Amino acid sequence: MPLTARDWALNGLPTVSWPTWTLQMTWLFGPTHPALRDLTGALERSAACVGLRISDQKTKIIRVGYKSTLPRITINGNQVEELREFTYLGSVIAADGDATRDVTCRIGKAFAVFKRLRSIWNSASLSLHLKLRLFTTIVVPTALYAAKTWKKTVTIDRKLDVFQQRCLRRILKISYRDRVTNDEVYRRTNTKPLSTVVTERRLQFTGHILRLPDHRLAKVAMHWRPSRGRRGLGRPKTTWRRTLMEDLRSVGIEWDDQHAVDTAAADRGRWKNLVAQCAERRRRN
């Protein structure tokens, strides 16, 4: 009977014998430091009731958005190590919420896969169509894993498109000295820039969430706004939500008009057309 740590901390012990329990790796989320500390303490006490002990060596903490120093969280009397970034299910989660590190990591893994298939790209017996299909089904998914959660910046778009051009030109055996433009490479391979694909996936993902019932956590998180606090001085940082707002604004929809957003997402055909229009306009800009 698998139980998560959140079940233990919030609901206490179930009416089953403890040998049937297995503790799975889980995340504990707290809106404030005291809330997270209390949740961690509740989990530790619940685990102790059935003779289990939380490993303070394997437990890590990451603070997203906090710049000031906060009191440490302890388990078994030892301080929990605090990380600036953490790899979870293949994605790099940074304390500052920046996706650039994750994008760089994904591109590195994808290029390693591309190099291992060098014999295929250099083969004279395989058609270009087959090579491009292999590239699309093996290399691209490695590069764009969890891309729907990335924000849009000039740096991220450039990294993705440069990686794609580098791979496609090797497949086509085109040197940069041949003076073939990027648009011509896309035309010969019948592909789109990866930055455009990321925009499409982000909006498709948004449409799925907007069609969920209002009580689902994913939809609650998408519409959540902090109840207090003030933004610091300077230009606001580009975030995933601000990227989404710019995506929708490019097709004439304002994020603050929730009725218009929900109505558009509810119509799958209309939303599909909006995704295509937004991706094309964002590419031109």
UniProtKB/TrEMBL annotation:
<protein>
    <submittedName>
        <fullName>Endonuclease-reverse transcriptase</fullName>
    </submittedName>
</protein>
